[in-house]
Design a protein that fits this description.
148 residues, mainly alpha
Length: 148
């Protein structure tokens, strides 16, 4: 079952339950997935579906960060939307899993004590391995923290 079908089914369930917030979030996600498929002129791969979902989550989080603190109704709406979208996103790696992959990359590159000069090489090898599975910001922070 593709993500489009899963989202459509969940949206129908939300409509039956008269859950407007969930329905709206799923409707926006469904539109984004369909638009990506139309642009590609073919069905989306699982990785492409994940990219669309992650992009929607990122945009919603950015909107949440830019929302003034006194706009509590908007803040609640964005938090609900993020919770709904995260149900369809793959489980993200935690810091320990990322550190394990970084250790593997360092071993592959033959780097014992990474320095700031090595960061570009490390990131170049690391990012394809964690793409779509880990938050890039978190990966960058962890790599920065291990630099000597």
């Amino acid at each position: 079952m593709s993500k489009i079908e899963e989202v459509r089914k969940a949206m129908v369930d939300a409509m039956k339950a008269k859950d407007k917030d969930t329905k709206d979030a799923l409707s926006a996600l469904l539109t984004a997935l369909k638009n990506k498929a139309i642009d590609k002129r073919a069905d989306l791969t699982e990785e492409e579906e994940t990219q669309v979902i992650m992009k929607e989550i990122k945009q919603t989080k950015e909107s949440l960060e830019m929302t003034p603190a006194d706009r509590t109704e908007l803040i609640e709406e964005f938090k609900k939307r993020i919770a709904v979208l995260e149900q369809f996103a793959p489980k993200m790696m935690d810091a320990d899993e990322i550190k394990a992959i970084i250790s593997g990359v360092l071993a592959e590159l033959g780097i014992d004590t990474p320095t700031a000069k090595d960061k570009g090489r490390i990131m170049k090898e690391l990012m394809p391995k964690v793409k779509g599975k880990a938050d890039g910001k978190l990966v960058n922070e962890i790599v920065g923290s291990i630099m000597s």
